[in-house]
Design brief:
This protein is α/β, with parallel strands linked by helices. It has two domains: 98 residues, Diaminopimelate Epimerase, Chain A, domain 1 (Roll); 303 residues, Metal-dependent hydrolases (TIM Barrel, Alpha-Beta Barrel), CATH 3.20.20. Strands 8, 13, 14, 15, 16, 17, 18, 19 and 20 form a nine-stranded mixed β-sheet that branches. Strands 3-2-7-21-22-23 form a six-stranded mixed β-sheet, covered by helices on one side. The protein starts with 6 loop residues before the first helix and ends with a strand. The chain has 17 helices and 23 strands. The chain binds zinc ion. The site of zinc ion has 4 residues, from loops.
Length: 522
């Protein structure tokens, strides 16, 4: 319940609480607080009472008398700063983010020569590493028009094997030493001998997500080993965000658990979902289109599964009670995923909240099927602003009418949730809110925004990274808004995103992140 009643009610509630034994409450005072309420409307608040269990007891407006501290209470003085619900990323890759923090990151490189210099510098700085492992390169950003070659990587590092995955994780770049050692395929797994300590990767990732204000994350595809790491972290109170884990395929699901694992460890961890891939990515021509690529007229990309296989996979997971999340980038893949959900028949799709991840390029005929089948569109605003130049090259302009079509999706009545797909994009949710509202890069390009009719309002973008993402992650009962009874998951930020020019939304800095009434950042 959102407390917005009369002062008399508040006083009565305050008296009741004073009559109760004083636990170690936490009072958040003097906040420029903004949350959505259970009706989805934006709601201002000034103070919040948090119980010693980490759950919200009361959320009070400026019109209400501020709660008076009792002996033993902890007081957080927000001093007029903006307080928001903890942000939720519906789709990221936590372990990969941690890995990226421990490996060579080429995401900022603007051309091949700059990347080669960075690789050379990194290799020189890490003489003991038997393998140089990294990611983040993008030949499109480099304006290369082709994949980089082994020889070009040899020019940077010759003495050791080097394995670098493309920004989307769907292509690899090896040098000759790596190719000689063989076994290296265009898979996203560790190269032989290139194994990175996975437990260690969890630590930096947790800090990285909390530092940008994420208190909840959908981890879009984990294996059993990652699940056991999560279990250990959650069991020892070390998970600093609520992780909605999705098993990567039926095999991982069976190894983790035959049946769904509802939120446990004080709602820090769940495994309610099986994730599948319907296609690859647009950048590497791997996304599966109904008609050929504009810049490769003999190629329409490739499906990962036949229609019959996809129907079987969706059915198998759903009949075990799992939500199904299907990675589908291009229109043919989205149509296949929707067909597979439709084949489940009425009823099942409603209860389990099936999702399509990315839903980037849609056929006009398929867009309304999300709402009709009650499928959640789990989309990533920063993909549009990172992809816009490449998408025009790959698709031409006609097919962009229903590409990254957030407004059309919401207007159609479909459930919508936002994420970043980190580490493909930075995990900062304010980058996503900015891209969602402006359809512009953080350099304010293009002027007026890219297909601005598909922009989100600030309220939609905020909801998409809070309450709507919570819904997609089946976590709305205890997170996504600041309301009595939910966990006190909130952030204190350096400016009010609802009061600044949209172009500045990406500049919002998180000063503190709190999860379940405990500070996890800084
Ligand atoms: Zn992903």
């Amino acid at each position: 319940m959102y407390v917005r009643e009369t002062a008399a009610f508040t006083l009565a509630a305050a008296l009741l609480m004073q009559a109760a034994p004083a636990g170690a409450r936490t009072l958040l005072l003097h906040a420029n607080g903004i949350t959505l309420n259970s009706a989805g409307q934006r709601q201002a608040f000034a103070s919040m009472v948090i119980g010693d269990d980490g759950r919200i007891v009361q959320v009070l407006t400026a019109a209400d008398p501020a709660p008076a501290p009792l002996p033993g209470d902890r007081v957080i003085d927000a001093a007029g700063r903006t307080v928001l619900p903890g942000l939720i990323d519906a789709h990221g890759h936590v372990e990969a983010l941690g890995r990226q923090a421990q490996t060579l990151d080429l995401a900022g490189t603007k051309n091949l020569a700059e990347a080669q210099a960075e690789i050379r510098r990194y290799a020189a700085a890490h003489p003991a590493l038997p393998w140089i492992v990294g990611s983040g390169w993008n030949q499109v950003v480099w304006q290369l028009d082709r994949f980089p070659t082994a020889a070009e990587l040899d020019a940077a590092v010759r003495d050791r094997p080097v394995w670098l995955t493309r920004v989307d994780g769907h292509a690899g770049w090896a040098n000759s030493a790596a190719l000689v050692l063989a076994g290296v395929t265009a898979a996203t797994n560790d190269p032989p001998g290139g194994h990175i300590d996975r437990t260690a990767a969890g630590g930096p990732a947790g800090v990285l997500v909390a530092s940008v204000g994420l208190t909840g994350v959908g981890d879009a595809g984990i294996d059993a080993e990652a699940w056991h790491i999560y279990e250990r972290l959650a069991g020892s109170g070390k998970l600093t965000a609520r992780v909605f884990a999705m098993a990567l395929g039926l095999d991982a699901q069976e190894r983790i658990s035959y049946s769904p694992i509802d939120w446990e460890h004080d709602d820090h961890l769940s495994m309610l979902t099986v994730k599948y891939f319907a296609d690859g990515a647009l950048g590497s021509h791997g996304a599966w289109l109904k008609a050929p690529y504009t810049d490769d007229p003999t190629n329409s990309g490739l499906p990962f599964h036949t229609d019959a296989e996809m129907k079987h996979l969706v059915y198998a997971a759903a009949q075990r009670g799992f939500q199904v999340a299907i990675h589908a980038i291009a229109d043919a893949a989205n149509a296949q995923a929707l067909d597979a959900f439709a084949a489940l028949g009425a009823g099942a799709p409603m209860g389990l909240r099936h999702r399509i991840e990315h839903a980037q390029v849609l056929d006009a005929a398929d867009l309304p099927r999300f709402a009709a089948l009650n499928i959640i569109a789990s989309m990533q605003p920063t993909h549009a602003t990172s992809d816009m130049a490449m998408a025009v090259t790959r698709l031409g302009t006609a097919r962009l009418a229903y590409a990254y079509a957030w407004h059309s999706m919401i207007a159609s009545g479909a459930h919508f949730a936002a994420g970043s797909d980190f580490p493909v994009e930075p995990p900062n949710p304010f980058f996503g809110i900015h891209a969602g509202v402006t359809r512009q890069s953080r350099d304010n390009l293009p002027p007026g925004g890219w297909y601005p009719a598909e922009a989100l309002t600030i309220d939609q973008a905020f909801a998409a990274f809070t309450s709507w993402a919570a819904y997609a992650n089946r976590a709305e009962k205890f997170s996504g808004t600041l309301e009595a009874g939910k966990w006190a998951d909130f952030v204190i930020v350096d400016r009010d995103p609802f009061a600044i020019p949209p172009a500045d939304l990406w500049k919002v800095k998180v000063q503190e992140t709190w999860v379940g009434g405990s500070k996890v950042f800084p």
